[in-house]
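Protocol step 4 of 5: obtain the predicted structure for the target chain.
Materials: sequence only (see below). No template structures provided, no constraints applied. The aim of this step is simply to have a reference model before the mutagenesis design in step 5. Sequence pasted as it appears in the construct record:
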Amino acid sequence: MSGAIQIVYKNIHVANSHTLAVALENGAYQAAAKALDMKGEEIIEEVKKSGIRGRGGAGFPAGLKWSFIPRSDPRPKYLVCNADEGEPGTCKDRDIIRYDPHMLIEGMIIAGYAVGAKQGYIYIRGEFVREAQILQQAVEDAYQAGYLGDNCLGREVCFHLAVHRGAGAYVCGEETGLIESLEGKKGQPRLKPPFPANIGLYDCPTVINNVETLSSVPAIINNGGEWYGKLGVAKSSGTKVFCVSGHVNRPGNYEVEMGLPLKTLIQQYAGDVRGGWDNLKGVIPGGSSTPVLTKAQCETVTMDYDGLAKAGSMLGAGSVIVLDRSVDIVKAIARLSRFYRHESCGQCTPCREGTGWIAQVMDRLARGQGRKEDIALLEDICANISGKTICALGDAAAMPVLGAIKAFREEFEYLVEHGRSMVG
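Step 4 output (structure tokens):
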């Protein structure tokens, strides 16, 4: 199929791929051995050449982020892997952990060495019990084999790694909220600046990347940054795992080159929309926090940062939620609004109060008891949240609502006028 290439999922169908023995048969730790014979700056340069951008949602260039760490600073440096994965519709990182934990560990050894970190942490969502167990066993096996510890792979390189289980909170997927939680405090985001590259874990320089990003690093080192940079499209290099869920015949995680048309992803990989392409109503392309696209937009949009931005949405974590024509968009967004109200940490007023107001108005509309002024009220509330909160949760709550009103305004207006949905 067009766009099919496996990097982080290359071993996913190999039996017992989570074990060290099978991982070694498939080339694990060869990239780490190569990297530890390079200088840290050389590794960072390769990652920059690759053009890889953070796969957790923000899309910041990974190599550039690594270069922000002040290597001559005498304070300890830390590397943290964000394995929280709390965005509704997102379920890709846990498959990497389930089936190839040594790829992640290897990526962390390389990244840790590159930025001068001697200690790494994997912050994993508390509900991922089985994944945490697999990861813990893999870390222990890596220690026993000499890949982790005071002399990684027989070199004079120290890198220790610990698995830390969070309690399960959406806001702990935000990097500073994660740091607070990792330090044993309430998981509430910090004001930025300062950024974690200077004031991170324990007030020391810290790099935070997610599972998919770090798991891509061994392939970049093995094949070179230029090789990776040629995959995908301009400003969106490499591959991306898309989690396709909703009304498709074959939901699942699909790793493809960036820039693949959304229509191809849905039809060729996910088995098409339930009832056929003409039954498509819209797609939330990057996870529940990203604006929904109409069917007309889905005809031509490509799955990359610029393509989705041009269409008025975002790549996010790559969580593609497909909605067929049976969906009541107001009810669907109302459900998401309740989620974001629940997950707001309450630290800042626009988010704490605004998510509550959004959820209340959306619920009123969904029940058919909406008022004529409710649509404008929602737009006003969202405008007073967006860009005015400490972290991105406020925007995450506002964008789906604004996107739905923009794309399907007639459904909101019909519901207000008739007291019932125009769907079904």
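Step 4 remarks: The mean pLDDT is 95. Residues 349-366 form the longest helix (18 residues).
Proceed to step 5.
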